[in-house]
Automatic annotation (TrEMBL):
Keywords: Oxidoreductase. Pfam families: adh_short (PF00106). It comes from Rhizopogon vinicolor AM-OR11-026. The keyword Oxidoreductase applies. This is Short-chain dehydrogenase. GO terms for molecular function: oxidoreductase activity. Transmembrane segments: none annotated. It comes from the Eukaryota.
Length: 345
């Protein structure tokens, strides 16, 4: 599928479907990146559905506490639990997953919303380009480490658990170079300082969202059919968010002016964007097979980019998956056993 500028404008000016509402009183929900933007608004919606537990995972403790207090005051729900995680630090992700397993256990809904948009090249303490690590590698790491908790909850429930990976329609705009497609380690290639500065930072955010679509599809291909877990990718659409605050901080810059004009003409509200996350988490419960591995937008299943569906795309998806598992297996000794127990070869 291809999305033209006209498609984009039509979607942005169309009516946003209302938020899905279900009974979550017996379910545990985890939102990663929950203290601001669409993650915060989605957490509000979940809170109004009275889940058994609502875990709000944030990088900043002070901002997380303020978000919890605001949700409690606005919704009257007192089941929010703040947990701290930093996706720019693999050790923090592993520690979070270990603590979650010991203290919380079963997980019915995982929403991986945290992400960054960096205009300049930055390395994390783990040695990866920051957007590639936060938006993709660390997101994949936590998602894989929580599979046992998701499956355990799904087996005890009348319906499969949901893993929601927040992606974007910008994945339609990515066409990797021949060098990257031919590389046995494309993630390593893309993360290098030379590649990023000379050729990569302009589309790094786009690439990270393509890789999240790859991850959901590759994981779905490998999940055993009887496994009570559905993974989906979702686009919140183009909406107001502090996600683009790095551009607004550039006073009087051309890109600041362009972003501001685009937002005023086209952007949905942050709350409207959050409805897409909620739909991905609780929608289509009566049609689970249709939603497994799907890419969701505007409250419906959408076809992914033509490149993803192409032979080249399938090949790159498998290459990215293999490299991802190799990288993350070095980060946590739990990855290999999880792959062996829950996924097909």
């Amino acid at each position: 599928m291809k999305k033209s500028a006209l498609n984009f404008y039509i979607e942005q000016w169309s009516t946003v479907p209302p938020v899905e509402v279900v009974d979550l009183s017996a379910e545990t929900v985890l939102v990663v990146g929950a203290n601001v933007g669409i993650g915060f608004e989605a957490s509000k919606h979940f809170a109004r559905m009275q889940p058994a537990r609502l875990i709000m995972a944030c990088r900043s403790e002070s901002k997380g506490k303020a978000a919890v207090a605001e949700i409690e005051q606005e919704t009257g729900y007192n089941g929010c639990e703040l947990r701290i995680i930093d996706l720019a630090d693999f050790a923090s992700v592993v520690a979070f997953a270990d603590k979650f397993e010991k203290e919380i256990g079963g997980l019915h809904i995982l929403v991986m919303n945290a992400g960054v948009l960096q205009p300049a090249f930055q390395l994390t303490t783990d040695g990866w380009e920051s957007m590639l690590q936060v938006n993709y590698l660390a997101t994949s790491l936590l998602s894989l480490l929580l599979i046992p908790q998701l499956v355990a909850a799904g087996r005890k429930s009348s319906r499969p658990s949901r893993m929601v990976i927040v992606s974007s329609d910008v994945h339609y705009l990515v066409n990797p170079t021949e060098e990257v497609k031919a590389s046995a380690k494309p993630l390593e290639t893309l993360s290098s300082k030379e590649w990023s500065i000379l050729r990569g930072m302009q589309i790094r955010y786009f690439e990270s969202n393509l890789f999240k679509v790859f991850f959901v599809r590759a994981l779905t291909d490998r999940l055993q059919s009887i496994t009570p877990l559905s993974a989906v990718a979702v686009s919140p659409g183009y909406c107001y968010s502090q996600f683009r605050r790095s551009f607004h901080e550039r006073t009087f810059s051309l890109i600041n002016i362009i972003v501001t004009i685009q937002e005023r003409l086209l952007a949905s509200t942050t709350e409207q964007g959050s409805r897409q996350l909620v739909f991905a988490a609780v929608g289509k419960r009566d049609d689970e097979e249709k939603i497994r591995g799907a890419y969701l937008s505007r409250g419906r299943v959408e076809e992914v980019a033509d490149f993803v569906l192409s032979d080249e795309g399938h090949k790159m998806q498998d290459t990215i998956w293999k490299e991802t598992i190799d990288i993350l297996s070095d980060v946590s000794d739990k990855i290999a056993p999880i792959i062996q127990e829950y996924l097909l070869p």
